[in-house]
Each structure stands twice: as C-alpha cells, then as structure tokens.
Amino acid sequence: MYKQLIDLVPESYSNFLLNEFTNNVQWTFTPSASNVGDNYDKNDPNIKDSTQFVHGIIGYSNTTSPLVQSVVPVVWFLEKETGIKIKNIVRVKANCLVRDGSAEQYNPPHVDVYDPGFVSLVYYINDSDGDTILFDKMIQQGHENLTPIVRNSPRKGSAFLFPSNQLHASSCPVDCKQRLVLNFILELA
Fold this sequence. Notes:
By secondary structure, this protein is α+β, with helices and mostly antiparallel strands. The protein has one domain (about 5-35, about 50-189): q2cbj1_9rhob like domain (Jelly Rolls, Sandwich). About 15% of the residues lie in helices and about 35% in strands. The chain is built from two helices and ten strands, in the order βαββαβββββββ. The strands form two sheets. The protein has a seven-stranded antiparallel β-sheet, covered by helices on one side. The chain has a three-stranded antiparallel β-sheet with strand order 7-6-9, with no helix packed on it. The protein is globular and about 45 Å long. The chain starts with a strand and ends with a strand.
C-alpha cells in the first residue's frame, strides 16, 4: 500500500515550509544518507551511498527542534486527505541531499521501522529531482535482488506515503541544487 499525495498542503503553507527550511534551519552533516552500514545488496550497481544534511525535529537524537509546531500540521493534512488515523508521531527529520551521482543511482535501500503498523511519509519541501524509490520487498523478505515498483518525484507541497517496513531509497538530485524533504514515521491508530 503506497499513496502519492499531490498538493497535500495548501500553497501558502508549502511556501511557509520552504522558507523555514531554506532560511531558518541549522543542518548537521551525516556521512551516509541511509545508515544501513553493509546491510544492502552489494551486487546492485545502482546503489551509491551519498552524504546528506539532517535537521532532527521530533524523536531524532534526543533533540526537539523549534520547528515542531511548523511540521505537525502536515500530519493533520494527511489525516484529512486520506482518512488515515495517526496514533503517534514517532520521528520527524528534515533531509537535504545535494547533487551527487547520476539519475540511475540511489542510496542504499532501507526501512524506517521493522514492524508493521507504521507508515512513512516523505513530504517534499521543494521542487527538485532525486526520486524516492519504493521496492517490491518488505524488510522480512531480505534486501537482495530488489525491483523498484514506483518512483516518486519531488514536487513542493506533495508527499509520498508507504509502509515503514517496506524497502525504499532516496536519490540525489542531478539537475537541481538540493532536494529538501521532511521524513515522518507515524504509528497508525
């Protein structure tokens, strides 16, 4: 079950978030975009782990960002748009990927949570390239011989929803300067 949510939030709110995350955020450099270590298919020639910048917002590295109140409404819009009921916001972080590699490459596939009952929402802060790729397997099925089943392109104000235990990957922009997203892990009610 995945869902592409076009224009999840109103344009005025997406403009507000774009301003917040381009002008008012302190980013932290991380050497890996997926933090999976060696736990990926080394025979997949399209995997290239890139660096990224992160801003933890909720439940990330025991910090709470002053931007908490700015991002929570995204979850409210999700509930209104889909009818899905959210029990708990487990984690929210902003990710910034910069140009690195080619359009065929993606970061190591990973999951956000191993257990069912959680969904991941990737909210796109800016228009960019650097798709989010969803693969055909859940983590319990292993990470070898993955087949992409959908690629979702970043469009400001839109989002991509999928089970947190399904393998997925980000990819770096090739044409745009940066790819800015909010990554939510949500527990279902």
